[in-house]
Write a structure and sequence with these properties.
The chain is mostly beta strands. The protein has strands spanning 4-11, 21-23, 30-33, 54-55, 65-89, 91-92, 95-96, 99-106, 111-115, 126-147, 156-165, 175-180, 188-189, 194-199, 205-206, 212-216, 231-232, 235-240, 246-253, 261-266, 271-272. Strands 2, 3, 4, 5, 8, 9, 10 and 11 form an eight-stranded antiparallel β-sheet that branches. A hairpin with a 5-residue loop joins β18 (235-240) and β19. It starts with a strand and ends in an 8-residue tail after the last strand. 28% of the residues are buried.
C-alpha cells in the first residue's frame, strides 16, 4: 500500500491592504515612555529581539478613564508612517490593564483615535494594529486614554514595528501561486515533489530572496502547534527562472516525506526586482 501524507502551505503576509509594504528603519530611533521598569526599558521594544521587552513600572492602579499613559518613538528626521503594529501583552498573574481607547500623536499636531476590543481572556501575545494614513512625522506617540478594567498591571511591548506603503512606480509585491500539492491536500504520496510558483507581473522575481522550508508539523503534537518547533525536512530546492515573471520552484526531499502533516513555508522575504517584498 502506498503511504500518504498531507501538506499545508503557509504564506506569511504582514499587512493586508497595503500594496508595497516597507518597514521603517528604527536603528536611529529612540523609545521612551511615561514609566519604565529599570530592567525593561522602552528601548527593548525596538531591538528586534522578541525575548526582550519594555514594561512600565506602575506603582498604583490606573484609572479606567483618562489614564493618559503613553509610549513614544522619536527619529532624528522625518519618516513616512503608514502602519504600526505593537506586539505585547497587558495581562499577567491575574492582573490586567487592557487598552480600550488609544490616540496616536504626530509631529504636525495631528492625531488619530482607535478603539480596541476587550482582550481580557488573551493571556499571551496581543497585537494592536494602527493604520496611520501615511503620516510624515519625526515621532509617534501612543497615548492610552482609557482602559477596560480598573486594576493595575504592567503594559508590555515585546516589539513595535512601523511600515509605510511605497506607492511609487512598481508597488505590487510578488505572489506565491500554483502550489502542488495544493494547500491542504491530503493523501499525498510520500515520494512527491513540492512545487510552487513565485510570480511578479512587473519587475520579475528576485530569486535570491526565495526562502523555502518544509517541515514535519506532526512530531510536535499537532499541525502548526506553537509549543514545540517543527522538524525541518532536508532536501533540494530547484529554481527555474527561465521566465522571471513566473519562477517555478521544485523541492525534492532527500528521502520520502514522513507520513504526517507537512508544513511548507514561503518566507515573507520574497521580493521582486523593484524591492517590493511579500511581507515578513
Amino acid at each position: 500500500m502506498k503511504q500518504l501524507c498531507s501538506v499545508v502551505f503557509v504564506l506569511l503576509l504582514v499587512i493586508p491592504g497595503l500594496a508595497a509594504v516597507v518597514e521603517v528603519n528604527t536603528s536611529s530611533a529612540t523609545a521612551s515612555a511615561w514609566s519604565e521598569h529599570s530592567s525593561y526599558p522602552a528601548a527593548n521594544s525596538l531591538d528586534g529581539n522578541f525575548n526582550s521587552f519594555w514594561t512600565n513600572d506602575r506603582g498604583s492602579h490606573p484609572t479606567t478613564d483618562g489614564a493618559g499613559d503613553w509610549y513614544q518613538v522619536d527619529w532624528p528626521g522625518d519618516v513616512e508612517i503608514g502602519f504600526i503594529r505593537t506586539e505585547g501583552r497587558s495581562f499577567q498573574s491575574g492582573f490586567y490593564s487592557i487598552p480600550q481607547d488609544v490616540r496616536l500623536h504626530f509631529s504636525d499636531g495631528s492625531t488619530l483615535d482607535f478603539n480596541f476590543d476587550d482582550t481580557t481572556q488573551d493571556h499571551w501575545v496581543q497585537e494592536y494594529d494602527f493604520y496611520a494614513d501615511q503620516q510624515t512625522t519625526d515621532f509617534v506617540k501612543i497615548e492610552f486614554l482609557t482602559y477596560y478594567h480598573h486594576v493595575w498591571e504592567y503594559i508590555q511591548y515585546y516589539e513595535v514595528d512601523f511600515y509605510y506603503d511605497d506607492d511609487t512606480g512598481d508597488s505590487n509585491p510578488p505572489e506565491v501561486t500554483g502550489q502542488d500539492p495544493a494547500d491542504g491536500a491530503v493523501d499525498v504520496p510520500l515520494d512527491s515533489d513540492i512545487v510552487f510558483h513565485a510570480t511578479d507581473d512587473n519587475s520579475g522575481v528576485d530569486t535570491a530572496t526565495i526562502d523555502f522550508t518544509a517541515a514535519d508539523s506532526t512530531l510536535s503534537g499537532g499541525a502548526l502547534t506553537m509549543v514545540s518547533p517543527l522538524a525541518d525536512i532536508n532536501g533540494t530546492l530547484d529554481v527555474d527562472d527561465t521566465d522571471p515573471l513566473d519562477v517555478i520552484c521544485t523541492f525534492t526531499a532527500d528521502a520520502d516525506l514522513p507520513a504526517d502533516t507537512i508544513t511548507c513555508t514561503v518566507a515573507g522575504s520574497l521580493a521582486d526586482n523593484a524591492g517590493n517584498t511579500m511581507g515578513s
